[in-house]
Amino acid sequence: MQILGIETSCDETAAAVVLSGTRVLANVVASQTALHRAHGGIVPELAAREHVRAIVPIVREAIADAGIDRAGIDAVAMTAGPGLAGSLLVGVNVAKAMAWALDRPLVAVNHLEGHVYANWLGLPDAEPPPPPAFPLVCLLVSGGHTELLLMTGHGRYRHLGSTLDDAAGEAFDKGARLLGLGYPGGPAVERAAVGGDPTRFDLPRAWLGDRHDFSFSGLKTALARLVEPYRLPAPEAADSAAGTPTGPFREHRPMPLRDDLPVSDLAAAFELAIVEPLAVKTARAAREFDARTVLLAGGVAANRALRDRLAAEVAAACGPDVPVRYPPFAYCTDNAAMIAGAAHWVLRRGDQAGWEADVSPRLELAPA
Amino acid sequence: MVAEPERLLLTIDTSSEQAGIGLFGPGIAAELTWLAGRTQTVSLLAQVHALLQLHGKAPADLGAVAVATGPGTFTGVRVGLSVAKGLVLALDCLLVGVDTLDIAAYPVADAGGAPLAAVAAGRGRVVWAPYGAGLPLRRIEGARNSAAADLAEWMATHPGTTLVGEVPADFDQTLTGAAGIVVDPLLRGRRSAALARLARVRLGSGDVDDPAELEPRYVGR
Ligand SMILES: [Zn+2]
């Protein structure tokens, strides 16, 4: 079954065609990162406008790349949530209209479930990977989410923990801003941390006892305190924002920092303070629930330090027979292949959406 | 190419909380309006499905889609445009985007009047534009986004105009006794038939929109 997937939950406009939940025939993503960079974060109204602009070329490109025509689409899937309401509704309404007009099943996919099922996807010219063995523990880390999940079978999730405040990716964004490193923060901090000494500065970890939850807001505060002495006085108010390409939307102006800010050591310490609790707690959960696989998912799964530390912690906690897996990079960050892939499993459990399907900005995967 | 006006035309207007769709073709002139509120995503496609079923038509019978491009509520306009774009992606039918104020203005202009077209933009604001008398539609000033008082003030200095379209309910207090003609609130809503007429003119001259390029019209303060 060839499923067209559409994803517009945040700041990527994406469409993909996936065969049988595993083989990616096409995966097209238009990123809005450059558009939002000037604002230091995502501006929801700008994101929604950009989705309306980008959606038609992106869907056309995905169908063309897949080498199929419209009649070859067996089902249409969309991200129903969670995400930004104004962004979600573009993909949801396009997908609904396409499914209705093509007389094909409509599938509403939870974005988080999409991230999990990205681990079932293979690159276009490769054999799909062997399916992950259940039960598995999945650490889903992105700009919007930090969830620890137990998955005992297809569509069977148990929520183990989540962040009490900032998502891991959000923490990277905020840390990068403090260090003057730009947006998005994850890759920026990772680059800056190369060669840095993570032990020079002591940053706190919120262990929260035996709980499987996470907390990163104290870490951000601690980093801000370390950076403070290196701040230069605020410059005179620059020219008014009028006439900028983004019109009425506020531009982000970073605080200037002194040249002797030990950015590499700070970035390394900050990265480690995020990665360590994620890896340790995931490994602990894997042992507690006798997981046969540990999965990483979400944009932060691309972080090298997290991958390495998680592999080491899981080996120490569970022995060498529990693999730690993560999707190819293109399927870690937001994409539609994961939506079209997950839709295969959603449809298999008989879950078809109706024409009255709505956006669900606060959708949860396994309510706590 | 089927000569106009025989092509089966679906119209979509979710520019404001009052939503409207229509189906127009040989022997069919159907209009449906409902108070969609902020649930346009839930109701729009379900109502389109019902309207086509009522007339024994299938999606593949559609030859063209006409959609209101705003101004209006940002969310409402994006719902309409997204459904229209999805239909064109699937059916490869023709697409025409029509300005929402033009839709509101059309019936008054058709009757020879000088419309002052308005659309509720949410949060107590209204977007409006004045037109010259009669057809073809001729906007005499640009659209602006303002509060009720500004609209009343404009009407006071332009007594020949007819207010049509949608304004927030409390505007009617302000507008009672205003100079000019104020159409009964129940009768001044946007008509799908007006959208269809404006779209037919463009379809007849082959003036259609590229679904990849068609964008909402945003009128900010
Ligand atoms: Zn995501």
Sum up the structure in keywords:
heterodimer, A: 368 residues, alpha/beta, five-stranded mixed sheet, 10 helices, 10 strands, globular, B: 221 residues, 33% helix, 25% strand, binds zinc ion
Write the layout of secondary structure elements.
The complex is a heterodimer of chains A (368) and B (221).
Chain A: E1 2-7, E2 12-19, E3 23-31, H1 33-37, H2 44-65, E4 75-81, H3 85-102, E5 106-110, H4 111-117, E6 136-141, E7 146-153, E8 156-162, H5 168-178, H6 185-193, H7 217-227, H8 263-288, E9 293-297, H9 304-318, E10 324-325, H10 337-348
Parallel strand pairs in A: 1-4, 4-5, 6-9, 9-10
Antiparallel strand pairs in A: 1-2, 2-3, 6-7, 7-8
Helix pairs in contact in A: 2-3, 4-10, 5-6, 5-7, 5-8, 6-8, 8-9
Chain B: E1 9-13, E2 18-25, E3 28-35, H1 40-54, E4 64-68, H2 74-91, E5 94-98, H3 100-110, E6 114-122, E7 125-130, E8 144-146, H4 148-157, E9 161-165, H5 171-175, E10 181-182, H6 192-204
Parallel strand pairs in B: 1-4, 4-5, 6-9, 9-10
Antiparallel strand pairs in B: 1-2, 2-3, 6-7, 7-8
Helix pairs in contact in B: 1-2, 3-6
The structure holds zinc ion.
Zinc ion is lined by residues 111, 115, 142, 298, 334 of chain A.
Q: Low-confidence runs of chain B (pLDDT<50, min 5 residues)?
A: none
What's the SSE pattern of chain A?
A: EEEHHEHEHEEEHHHHEHEH
Q: Main beta sheet of chain A, described?
A: 5 strands, mixed
Proportion of strand residues of chain A: 15-25%
Query: Biggest sheet of chain B, strands in spatial order?
Result: 3-2-1-4-5
The total count of helices of chain A amounts to 10
Largest contact between chains: A-B, 35 and 35 residues
Strand runs of chain B, count? 10
**Assembly state (oligomeric):** heterodimer
Shape verdict of chain B: globular
Structural class of chain A: alpha/beta
**How are the strands of the largest sheet of chain A arranged?**
3-2-1-4-5
Mean pLDDT of chain B, rounded to whole units? Answer: 92
Shape descriptor of chain A: globular
Listed once per kind, the bound small molecules are: zinc ion
Number of strands of chain A: 10
Helix count from the secondary structure assignment of chain B: 6
